[in-house]
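$ fold --in a.seq
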Amino acid sequence: MSPVTGSTSATKKTTTTKTATTTKSSATGKTTGGALRKGKKKIAAAPLKSKAESKKITNPLYEKRAKNFGIGQDIQHKRDLTRFVKWPQYIRVQRQRSILLKRLKVPPPINQFTQALDKQTSTQLFKLLEKYRPETKKRKKTSFKTPCRRTS
């Protein structure tokens, strides 16, 4: 039904080309050919040839048959079971460490402790830290017994 006129008449579309005029009916979907300018008729398209299906003759001894993996039937193929292997502890630890280092976003002040110092710097650091070590009980006892000196 057409929204403008309210009728159900079939509409026709006309297309013009350089060689022929064709009219297509939207109701039937068929195309009617028009006359060519030079007076020649259009040649009908050749009918499609059906391809003959050729079947290969196969030996029944070599036919592929479906495998049955039930109990007592065909043997299943080997699978990759490396995920289920009980790996040595050092391998597990190094794998877990690498995963953790990839996942964690460590702030730089903490990350600096993942790298060791060289020998010279480490000895200087330990000498400095030795001065700030808390007093032992023995040292504390001797410091209380000795009199304090005034500095001024």
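$ fold --in b.seq
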Amino acid sequence: MGPPGRPPATIPGFFRNGPGTPEGQDQEAVISPLGTGCRAGEDADPQYDNGNLTWSGHSGGPKQPHCLIVNPSSLTLTPAQTSVLEKGLGFVPTAPLDKFKLCMEVNECIRKIKLRSYFGDRSSREDPNMGDTGLRNKSSFTAPSTLIPVEILTFKQAVMKDINGIDPTSLKVFHNTTREEKKALQDLANHTSIVIKPADKGGALVIQTTTTIGMNA
């Protein structure tokens, strides 16, 4: 992007919206100064005040920049798919509380703590003449509770008591995606003919056809 005061940069509409845009037709893409490869929201208008670039046309203060999407594939993105992709690969949708899964993760964490406590003094349990190759089969061994410090068992009981006391219906869940965006995210995940990955430079998202990747490899 050029020095402040210059008009916003433009990129070909083909790379903005895929092959659905007529060839040769350019669409304005405002490149946000807050991050390379990101642009401000569609409803934001660039304003120049004494050489400083600001944004107006939307409420709630400055809008967060969106990841720029480069789509040379044959897939034409829907507005919902574009919206969810603009959130970036690091975006995590809000998920409802799954108490069963949470209990499983807590038990796995406690198991690791038990193993660390039980095998803390490895020198007394290993044969010094046996070389360690670093290769082991996955173990399901759990140290006996009678050989684990009482503090670990008390910690587990306290955590499980807190989890069992949670009422999922009383939790206020603030969803960060719309119903259309959730469906669009699932549709993109099930689309086996494309690959979505970060660009080598610039921080943009690139949508490629799987056959194209094989040809370029």
